[in-house]
């Protein structure tokens, strides 16, 4: 589910766009047959979508609609035995295309009914479909693989992918963990729906995104089927598994809430878990209806991970969260999950929004006001000489994309904007942003135009100071 090619290309920065176009053009020039008018002109899909932070991520030439992932996993052996069926639509005539995959050995690969030649080159899984694929054709890729998926280390040294715990696996995917266990088009620009069918030893619980549609036990093995009906970015997919205490409730607005908590963390997590319905209700009142048909949380013990992630419909926590962290991950369901970034340098659109939403929740629930939080020593109260002010909000770089700046300066940007355009325009802006771009892909430039439109003001200088310049803003 990608946006049209031209809209996608228009969002790249100059250098990345040039690189992406060059690749596509070279491929076309060298590989296309000198066809007759109306005949297919086959070429290779682009091996990248050109993100400067993660240049191997994503692939061109097709658009994934659905991932159907069937696997067995045993925490004792750490062996995954998986078959993933990808349904996609070709967006050009293809004689070759790539998926992203860093998982274990592939035992068979088919395109449609036909075994296809493939080779692996870093995270690229290069596939040669025969017969070739015509533009507009819907096709399936069936990949069978078996072994232990890897832990992936990020540019900031944090870990993700397939992270074994003492009773299962913790599965975070942002920004590049999904290909550890899922052959995929690993870009937030290509959202799709998902089905997970996971078989584990009886007693182990598998928690995926979306809705649990079946759970059956035979011969001491349990199969869980999880369905995500709304489009989802690959980095938001999870199939976290282990020993969990499961509880189900609903929000006042009727959204089912499924929580899975490591038995050792139930007491410590109780406060944050109990507030989920209230938090979702409050955010629905400020940001518009909750965007998905299910909600919940997965609270696990994964001490080496040390962060939480907004996995779609089921944020995952590597330890017992505070109410504030719970609010942050739930706010991401609107900002980050439903409304997605198209390139990682725009990470403030995720983290600044989730952080500001948490400031609002704190004020709403009787704590510090958003203005007090803005003024605090972790925010605007930092000295002008602090290194904090030397990172650019709207392009922090891959090492600092989950550092303080996209979170805190991002949230400060929104609070300053609210002061600049007034409460009425500001709250209309953030609600319309969530509604108009539901399940879509956005950029910083889109947000600047939306803010200018709702306020009727020229905000170029304002956003330049807050998002694109280094240094502590002093006037805006
Ligand atoms: N997006 C997560 C959050 O703010 C944090 C996160 C995801 C992260 N991946 C990470 C933090 C890698 C550090 C390293 O909720
Ligand atoms: Zn976040």
TrEMBL record:
<comment type="similarity">
    <text>Belongs to the peptidase M1 family.</text>
</comment>
<feature type="domain" description="Aminopeptidase N-like N-terminal">
    <location>
        <begin position="66"/>
        <end position="236"/>
    </location>
</feature>
<keyword id="KW-0482">Metalloprotease</keyword>
<feature type="domain" description="Peptidase M1 membrane alanine aminopeptidase">
    <location>
        <begin position="323"/>
        <end position="466"/>
    </location>
</feature>
<dbReference type="InterPro" id="IPR027268">
    <property type="entry name" value="Peptidase_M4/M1_CTD_sf"/>
</dbReference>
<keyword id="KW-0378">Hydrolase</keyword>
<protein>
    <recommendedName>
        <fullName>Aminopeptidase N</fullName>
        <ecNumber>3.4.11.2</ecNumber>
    </recommendedName>
</protein>
<dbReference type="InterPro" id="IPR045357">
    <property type="entry name" value="Aminopeptidase_N-like_N"/>
</dbReference>
<dbReference type="Pfam" id="PF01433">
    <property type="entry name" value="Peptidase_M1"/>
</dbReference>
<dbReference type="GO" id="GO:0016285">
    <property type="term" value="F:alanyl aminopeptidase activity"/>
</dbReference>
<feature type="signal peptide">
    <location>
        <begin position="1"/>
        <end position="29"/>
    </location>
</feature>
<dbReference type="InterPro" id="IPR042097">
    <property type="entry name" value="Aminopeptidase_N-like_N_sf"/>
</dbReference>
<dbReference type="GO" id="GO:0008270">
    <property type="term" value="F:zinc ion binding"/>
</dbReference>
<keyword id="KW-0479">Metal-binding</keyword>
<dbReference type="InterPro" id="IPR014782">
    <property type="entry name" value="Peptidase_M1_dom"/>
</dbReference>
<feature type="region of interest" description="Disordered">
    <location>
        <begin position="31"/>
        <end position="57"/>
    </location>
</feature>
<dbReference type="GO" id="GO:0006508">
    <property type="term" value="P:proteolysis"/>
</dbReference>
<keyword id="KW-0645">Protease</keyword>
<dbReference type="InterPro" id="IPR050344">
    <property type="entry name" value="Peptidase_M1_aminopeptidases"/>
</dbReference>
<dbReference type="InterPro" id="IPR001930">
    <property type="entry name" value="Peptidase_M1"/>
</dbReference>
<keyword id="KW-0732">Signal</keyword>
<dbReference type="Pfam" id="PF17900">
    <property type="entry name" value="Peptidase_M1_N"/>
</dbReference>
<dbReference type="GO" id="GO:0008237">
    <property type="term" value="F:metallopeptidase activity"/>
</dbReference>
<keyword id="KW-0862">Zinc</keyword>
